Amino acid sequence: SRIQDVLEAQKVRQRRFGMDAVECAVGKDLAREFHRLDENPFQMRGGAMLRLSDHQKAALNAADIEADIKEQFKKETLLRDEHEEMRRYVEARIAAECPAAMAAKGGGGANGVGPSDSKRPKIAGPEDDILFKAAELVKQYGSKRNEELLSNQMLVGIPEVDLGIETRMRNIEATEQKKVELLKKGIIPQPTNNWQPVVVVEEIEEG
């Protein structure tokens, strides 16, 4: 018929598409998979949830733990040190009001504790006297400050792991048994207080 002849002519005149670059490189079957992934990379059109592999989950957990540890240490390093700030304040006040005191800093008197009376500058009032005494106390305390601050930061920054009550009881039992053995061998001295070893009594079920 006339209509069929027209349809056949349209099919003959239809322009065919050639192969694209991906099909030429990997073939039609693999190219179809690549196109499907490009259109739906997270597999969300099928209605399923995004599933991560064990390796991807472990990587995400490791990144979270590392970020938490960095944040904790950052907070610990930003702690205020009141003694250090007081020392700087005292030195600034002394340098501003009594410049001769900074020149005589480090000199010792007869007992070696503080500067001698001959080297100490003239005190204008009771406030300056208080500042001098505070400076001497801060100098005595400054030697222990760095070690204590570092140890506190390290102890607070380490996360605590809950071992459970059974593990704690086993640790206590092993510690007490080791103390008794060392006391019997005479390796450690006898305690002065009324210390007694902890005796662990196990209940035996009568069957």
TrEMBL record:
Keywords: Nucleus. InterPro entries: Tls1-like (IPR010756). Its main location: nucleus. One of its GO terms (cellular component) is spliceosomal complex. It holds the Pfam family Hep_59. Signal peptide: none annotated. GO terms for biological process: mRNA splicing, via spliceosome. It is found in: Nucleus. Belongs to the TLS1 family. This is RPAP1_N domain-containing protein.
